[in-house]
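Sharing in case it's useful to others searching the archive later.

Someone asked me privately for the predicted structure of Cobyric acid synthase, so I'm posting the question and my answer publicly. Question first, with the sequence:
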Amino acid sequence: MTGGGLLVAGTTSDAGKSVVTAGICRWLVRQGVKVAPFKAQNMSLNSFVTKEGAEIGRAQAMQAQACRVEPTALMNPVLLKPGGERSSQVVLLGKPVGEMSARGYHGGRQQKLLGTVLDCLAELRGTYDAVICEGAGSPAEINLRRTDIVNMGIARNAGLPVLVVGDIDRGGVFASFFGTVALLSPEDQALIAGFLVNKFRGDVSLLEPGLDMLHGLTGRRTYGVLPFRHGLGIDEEDGLRVSLRGTVRESNVSPPVGEDVLRVAVCAIPLMSNFTDVDALAAEPGVVVRFVDRPEELADADLVVIPGTRGTVRALEWLRERGLADALRRRAAEGLPVLGICGGFQILGEHIEDEVESRRGHVEGLGVLPVRVRFAREKTLTRPVGEALGEPVEGYEIHHGVADVVGGEAFISDDEGHSLDGCRVGQTWGTHWHGSLESDGFRRAFLREVATAAGRRFVPAADTSFAALREEQLDRLGDLIEQHADTDALWRLIESGAPQGLPFIPPGAPA
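And my answer, the predicted structure tokens:
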């Protein structure tokens, strides 16, 4: 028996598809429904490693957490990791299969993946009571419809009803809803069940006449109006603005436990990846996190973080061009804390041999850690565990660079004291492990070291649980759906599909 399903599409990118999908998943699982997330194709530098060693988008990993299930490659069979404006690494079923230009991908490769995508969705629907699918961009991108495998392409082939989410905070939501439907073919329009308004501020009664008119114009109802809430962004796809909307930019920094706050500056390097690594720092009371791109912005920072990147050599050049490389070297020489994560760790080393990512060959690093990096064609994808600063730590690795550590102290070790990863010299630290700061004991120990080195009377809170904060965030998303959407009508969609007899809205897709 095939389980129920729903595709959450959006009028635009960043309309709130990931958040709404996670919210519906958490609402369903609280009703006792066995549910899984799915996104056929994700374009993101923000990724995660599953227990079986597959790389998927972090949004789908978080949605799996909302479902209280372990994430798998089935939930995001195609992941595109941009390496520049015109090319991306294609990750298929969790493993990289090569670089491809946008023209090459949309010109033929994408359509060939449809069978794989449908097989993954069918396997999930055969295992779960419901599968909540997330679209990408807009379903009305008519230039890409022929090869689409993530919006109406998947909806048509799998017979999924479609809920279109619109961000009313941007303005123009009624035109966006109407235009999205009117640009689709009759066959596609038959699956557009209705709309969901996201990020509404104010009195809903003032919106209702517009929703009634929209119903009259399209024959499709609105399934809910979700109010604007700060701090609800989960680990979404791309862009600094997306990641930081939730945990960093819109969160209120809680008062410090000690006398001082701790200021963290994160270098906003090009092709930044897994920038959610710093969310755990921002969750600590009294820690202020900001992203910077000028050397003078490092002056008052107690800790500087160089995050991961899909372009290590390009990021290194960017740091030099902006004067940040010299500022980082000065900090290291003065014993002020610097942390490099993954690509940031590689940047801090002596040199890089890269015939894989940038194909630039030998490139000098910042030279503040005794590490030599060689890029391998095989990508490391693991979920390691170890100890650091006397505390258990776990994380995940996603990198082509192989580090040869030729000095300094071990950063992360096994339970017998043998080095597992990373390097430390003074107050300069480097590790390939993403997510390590989510380990509460390790994070507190690290922040105590940083505070001492920076001369700050900062004290980490003894009871901050990052995992618990994530659960609270997902529960708030579930609450939004339960309290502000017509959940009975949503369940009918998931169980029975789009209503019959939905009207066609001209002009439809161009011939």
